[in-house]
Amino acid sequence: MADLIIKPRKGLAALNFGELYAYRDLLYFLAWRNVKVRYKQTAIGAAWAVIQPFMNMIVFSIFFGALAKIPSDGLPYPIFVYAGLLPWTFFSNVIRMAGNSVVEDEKLITKVYFPRLIIPSSVAGVELLDFCIAFIIYVLMMLYYQIPLTVQLLAIPLLLFFMVIAALGIGLILSALTVTYRDFRYVLPFVIQLWLYVSPVIYPVSIVPEAWRPLLALNPMAGIIDAFRSALLGSPFDFPTLIISAIVSVILFIGGVLYFQRLERTFADII
Amino acid sequence: MSTTDPIIEVQHLSKKYSLGKKREMYHTFSGVLVHSARSLSQRLIGRGTSQTREDFWALSDVNFTVQRGEVLGIIGRNGAGKSTLLKILSRITDPTGGQIIMRGRVASLLEVGTGFHPELSGRENIYLSGAVLGMRREEIDQKFQEIVAFAEVEKFLETPIKRYSSGMYMRLAFSVAAHLDPEILLIDEVLAVGDIAFQKKCLGKMENVAQGGRTVIFVSHQLEFLAQLCKRCLLVDKGKIVQDGPSREVISQYVKLVRSTDTMDLRTRKDRQGEGRVRLTQTWVEDMGGNRSNRIISGQDMKIIATYEVQEYYNCTNLAVSFAVLTVHGVVVVDLGTGTITPDFTENVPRRGKIECIIPRVPFNNGEFVYNALLRSARSGNEVEDWVKNAGSFTVEPGDYYRTGHIAGTASLLCIDHTWNILSA
Fold first, then answer.
1. Is there a contact between B223 and B369 (Cβ–Cβ < 8 Å)?
2. Is A240's pLDDT higher than 80?
3. Which of A59, B57, B130, B274 could be disulfide-bonded to B140 (CB atoms 3.0-4.6 Å)?
4. Which helix (H) or strand (E) holds B101?
5. Can you tell me the distance from the alpha carbon of B144 to that of B126, in angstroms, rounded to the nearest whole number?
6. Which residues does the UniProt record annotate as the domain ABC transmembrane type-2 (chain A) (predicted)?
């Protein structure tokens, strides 16, 4: 083993993949802890993972679909909105939970060393599990509405990847900021609410004027949600929007990691 | 890398905390805005900003090396910088200057039950805590039975640990930690755990660890423990290493240092055990005239005093108190307790009180003594409420114990009344 040198860290640090790999079991156990703890002493347990997007789907279908008659690219509105809610629920939960995660694990931060990135990352692990549970409902809806399977479904893994890094990028920034400024705890629910309206969850990208779409795509979730829906429902991909959103996701992720690693040095002192 | 290189080299290590900044940063955006507005206005009217930038050097220019297989003790008063040093060594916080070279896998044990979650079962927590402390999953699988057996919690493996008694919790927590297998082990004040039998077991385990060729650094207030386990100690005071040498020399230097402060504040001590419904707050030694002094003359009268407070929620009607007096090397000289020659306090126990133990004609003769303070609440099954080891200390100087007009000899620990006869046999 190489010598370890402990000295003041300055400037930006690259991701230490070797170390993260060495701590992979911890990532697993923390995610597993979050799953276990979350549904402890609840009556219906993991069903909550389904209820959140499902109830949203019903409410949105009634108000935006049936009453406001928002177009849904010719698809039944419930499955249209549910396909958008899947990535959106993941994204909003990750940034909400990751934002608080470091502060909540204060005891770990001040008592033991491990790559701090693991804490917010473990949140993404839990949400990914919830995503999979919620996906089962989607499969049932697909059978009900007789949506055909297409080759576009193969894009899902790639879209999942962008979904995770976009959420994690923002989650990392928020978690580091929350350590210093607890304000973000209060800001976040409000921001998430607004964010929903600039993401094509309840409406299709097609109702946004073409000239405005690049701007919309700066929201990484815009391209990802839209592409998700296309992959699931077999409608054509909007490549320009997707590409912009994917690039923004990568930038957010890299920026988030760098920012987080810069601030993590002071976590134990100021938390 | 050769094996003769020191396993740890600490070079010019320093750590600064900006107290003002820390307080400010903890607050909110608006706090920062107010702060920057204030410092701006101060600058405008020509006043310095020195009040807002309180720098505190927790460590300054610390240098030492540790050899492979060495067991090193670190002692010092509260706030001397011991914990900061340990936090930097265990990479929890960054130093401000200097560097440390570590030539081995490090694990640190800064609290009992790191990573424990109250909602999870004993089994689940073994895995969680093990992983947090740096064990791989296979490693935990392998040692699982051993950990469970050592902690003696076989029957409660599936019970959430929030339902564990504090003793069980401590045993489980310590057991996980005791099974870590690093090359360098850093341990802070976590040894005062569990009941006495379990404590002995832990000490045994610790001794095995120390003799197993592993490098260990202990931070502790338990002087006798350090004297037993470590050949070498560092004395840290005000952020500097003031002595580095054989344990017994460093420990007696430490006792002298502590003695210079007469009243010991126990509220900040973390190495305590018990239910905590009644807590010791301060302790000191005084003469019959009420003068606090840690210098006692043999043959005169003294009082050992401790103050305590009862937690709001607890209705305390019984209090049993004891002060065990030990030599600095851990030999119990005498255990003074209520319930032996006087009853426990069972009437009018104040919520905040001062307990006096009067020792007439002090029989200690010469040397440094420390005492442990123990509070028990008698009605609830004699439960330990608060137990602080090495709560205080005092020095005894030889005096006229025998009332002969001469000072007794200096070579012994105690003076005992006695008479002589010579008979033909």
1. no
2. yes
3. B130
4. strand B97-102
5. 8
6. 44-263
b/e sequence B328-359, b meaning 16+ C-beta within 10 Å: bbbeebeebbbeeeeebbeeebeeebebebeb
The model's confidence at residue B210, banded by pLDDT at 50, 70 and 90, is: low
Residues in chain B: 425
Output the DSSP codes for B259-277.
Answer: HTS-SEE-TT--SEES--S
Do B29 and A180 count as a contact with CB atoms less than 8 A apart? no
Tokens of B107: 């694990």
- The span from the CA of A152 to the CA of B388, in Å, is 68
Contact A137, A53 (CB under 8 A): yes
Question: Which ipTM score applies to this complex?
Answer: 0.86
Coil, strand, or helix at residue B64?
strand
| Contact at CB, B105 and A7, closer than 8 angstroms | no
Query: Across the interface, do A3 and B127 touch by the CB < 8 Å criterion?
Result: no
Q: pLDDT band at B48, cuts 50/70/90?
A: very low
**Residue B44 reports pLDDT greater than 70:** no
Q: What is the pLDDT of residue B310?
A: 92
| Per-residue pLDDT tens over the stretch B396-412 | 888 889 888 777 777 78
**Residue A182: which of A174, A170, A193 has the closest Cα?**
A174
What are the structural domains of chain B? Answer: 16-55 (no CATH), 59-259 (3.40.50.300), 264-397 (2.70.50.60)
Tell me if A6 and B91 make a contact (CB, 8 A cut-off).
yes
Residue with tokens 């302790």: B283
The answer to whether B202 and B182 have CB atoms below 8 angstroms apart is: no
Q: Which two tokens stand for residue B379?
A: 């009605």
Q: What is the pLDDT of residues B245-299, one digit of tens each?
A: 999 899 888 887 776 667 888 888 877 888 888 999 999 998 888 878 888 889 9
**CA–CA distances in Å: residue A170 to residues A11, A79, A121, A166, A240:** 21, 28, 11, 6, 22
B142, amino acid identity: Q
Per DSSP (E only), the strands in B226-359 are: 232-237, 240-246, 264-265, 272-273, 278-286, 295-297, 302-310, 320-327, 332-337, 352-359
CA distances from A203 to A74, A82, A213, A219, B4 (A): 12, 11, 13, 15, 69
Alpha-carbon distance of B287 to B358, in angstroms, equals 9
Distance CA B393, CA B261 (A): 10
Which residues, 6 or more positions from B1, have their beta carbon under 8 angstroms from its beta carbon? A3, B103
Is B62 a residue whose pLDDT tops 90?
yes
| Mutation site, B3, B59, B93, interface A, largest A CB count within 10 A | B93
| Smallest CA–CA distance from A41 into chain B, residue | B119
Q: With cut-offs at 50, 70 and 90, classify the pLDDT of residue B196.
A: low
Token pair in block for residue A96 = 């909400």
